[in-house]
């Protein structure tokens, strides 16, 4: 039986998945592992690619994860099929670094919930328009500074802990990994950073793709702020009691306000053009994130995360 199960959510991933699977195949390990590619209803040749590789890679498994849509659902379905006591998550469009499997396996011997480091040069040298930065895998949100979060692109967790908190929230379009991180820590399990576990990340290339991703992240942050309003109030007051009233969904967007934002966006874009495509890409990202956060729709009746009886110590 495998000791470590690697779960990869995949949707129309034929162009990048081979490189990720090659990196996993080249790992030098001394323990049994499996890799589950959880196909979320791909329309391309992703399933065929996995079936072809299975003939020579017995550790590779194809999981039909099309019953429910979205990366959270694909990961949850994959975790349900996994046989290892340790779960490690990575994405179909990134590439794990050498030693990633061993790093995850060793880290989870001592720590219940772990993350690694991101490297942003290897997969993005030929990009025409991408942001210059590589975001840190440890995320701290300004509206919830007490606990860190991490991305599902390089995340390890003991199966028992994953099942205890109910896995990823499938109602979330973005921010589902940060949400899981917070719920795991609220349940009493610390997030530990292991910088030696390296993942090569693939950035968005092209202004439209950058704006769409940034907008989705901004809207996701707005929803997370609503979901964790009670917990934030408890951290603020130091008492594990719900905060008063529902989270404020924000004022309606006025036409004058929208025009003002557009004008500011235009001025910023003109100023950044002098830096070329990189400066423009960074501007598009920041604008997209702000617009998503300000105007992303949040249902005031959306469920909120309950306050635990004992709050973990802030990090």
From TrEMBL:
SUPFAM superfamilies xrefs: Nucleotide-diphospho-sugar transferases
Glycosyltransferase 2-like domain sequence ranges: 5-165
One GO molecular-function entry: glycosyltransferase activity
Domain of life the protein comes from: Bacteria
Listed name of the protein: Glycosyltransferase
Enzyme class of the recorded protein, top EC level: transferase
PANTHER family associated with the record: GLYCOSYL TRANSFERASE FAMILY 2, GLYCOSYLTRANSFERASE
Record InterPro entries: Glyco_trans_2-like, Glycosyltransf_2, Nucleotide-diphossugar_trans
EC number: 2.4.-.-
Swiss-Prot/TrEMBL keywords: Glycosyltransferase, Transferase
Pfam family, one: Glycos_transf_2
């Amino acid at each position: 039986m495998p000791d470590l199960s690697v779960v990869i959510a995949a949707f129309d991933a034929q162009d990048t998945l081979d490189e990720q699977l090659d990196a996993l195949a080249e790992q030098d390990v001394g323990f049994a592992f499996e890799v589950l590619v959880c196909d979320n209803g791909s329309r391309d040749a992703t399933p065929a690619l996995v079936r072809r590789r299975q003939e020579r890679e017995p550790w590779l498994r194809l999981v039909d994860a099309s019953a429910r849509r979205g990366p959270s659902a694909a990961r949850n379905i994959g975790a349900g099929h996994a046989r290892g006591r340790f779960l490690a998550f990575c994405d179909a469009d990134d590439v794990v670094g050498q030693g990633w499997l061993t790093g995850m396996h060793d880290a989870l011997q001592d720590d219940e919930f772990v993350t690694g480091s991101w490297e942003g040069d290897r997969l993005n040298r030929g990009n025409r328009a991408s942001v210059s930065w590589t975001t840190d895998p440890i995320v701290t949100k300004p509206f919830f500074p007490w606990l860190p979060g991490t991305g599902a692109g390089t995340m390890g967790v003991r199966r028992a802990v994953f099942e205890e908190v109910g896995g990823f929230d499938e109602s979330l379009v973005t921010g589902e990994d940060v949400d899981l991180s917070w719920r795991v820590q609220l349940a009493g399990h610390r997030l530990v950073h292991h910088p030696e576990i390296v993942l090569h990340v693939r950035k968005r290339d092209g202004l439209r793709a950058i704006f769409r991703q940034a907008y989705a992240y901004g809207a996701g942050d707005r929803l997370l702020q609503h979901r964790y309003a009670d917990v934030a109030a408890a951290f603020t007051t130091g008492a594990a009691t719900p905060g008063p009233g529902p989270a404020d969904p924000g004022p309606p967007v006025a036409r004058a306000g929208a025009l003002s934002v557009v004008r500011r966006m235009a001025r910023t874009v003109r100023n950044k053009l002098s830096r070329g495509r990189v400066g423009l890409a960074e501007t598009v990202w920041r604008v997209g994130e702000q617009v998503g956060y300000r105007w992303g729709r949040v249902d005031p009746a959306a469920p909120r995360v309950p306050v635990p009886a004992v709050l973990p110590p802030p990090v």
